[in-house]
Amino acid sequence: MTETNVTDNVATIVNGQLHLSRITYNCDLRRGTGDVLPLGVIAEVTLGPVRALGLIARTELDSEETILIGSLWRDRLAKPFELLKVEFDWAWANAGAGEALGALANRHSESLLIAAPQRTSLRKAFNSAQEILDFARRELRNQRDDEFELMLADVWGQLDSSPTEELAKAA
C-alpha cells in the first residue's frame, strides 16, 4: 500500500491578468470617418511567475489597402507582421510584466494605433508550475486569436472561416 501525503492533493490558486490590444491603421485622422485597416492583435498574460506575450498580425495588405496608406507609412505597412514583430520585441525587452501593451499604446496612438489594452482577470487552481505555463499559453493564444477574428469581422463583416497562414502570422 502506498502512502499519500495530504500535500500531494493541494492545489495553489494563482491570480493573473490577460491584456489584449487591437492594432489598426487609421487612414485619415482629420476625418473620424476615414478607412481603418485591421492589422493585428497583441496579448500579454501574467499569471503567477509566468509572463507571456503573443502577436497575431496580417502578413500583407492588398493593393487596394496599400493605396489608402500615407506615403510615410506605406513601405513599412506593406507587411504588417514584420513591422509589428519589431514592436513586439521592443515591448518584451523594455516593458515590465503586465505593462507591455500600455507601453505600446503610448508609443502608437495616432495613424498606427495600438489600442489601450482590455484587461481580463484570471484565477485558477494549479498543481504544478508546468500547468500554470500551459494554461497561460493556451489562454493567451485562444483569446488573442478570437479577438483577431472579431476585429476582422468588425471591419470586413462576417468571416466565412478562420484566418489562414496566408492572411495572418502568429508569434
Major β-sheet, in short? Answer: 6 strands, antiparallel
Helix content: 25-40%
**Ends apart, CA distance between termini:** 48 Å
Poorly predicted runs:
none
Helix/sheet category: alpha+beta
Count of the separate structural domains: 1
- Spatial shape: elongated
Radius of gyration: 19 Å
Helices, by number, come to: 5
Tell me the series of helices and strands, N- to C-terminal: EEEHHHHEEHE
Note the beta-strand portion: 25-35%
| Tally of DSSP β-strands | 6
Mean pLDDT: 88
Folded structure, characterized:
With 171 residues, this protein is of the alpha+beta class. It has one domain. It is 37% helix and 30% strand. The chain is built from five helices and six strands. It has helices at 63-68, 71-77, 80-94, 100-107, 129-156; strands at 12-26, 36-47, 50-58, 112-114, 118-126, 168-170. Strands 1, 2, 3, 4, 5 and 6 form a six-stranded antiparallel sheet that branches. The chain starts with 11 loop residues before the first strand and ends with a strand. The mean pLDDT is 88.
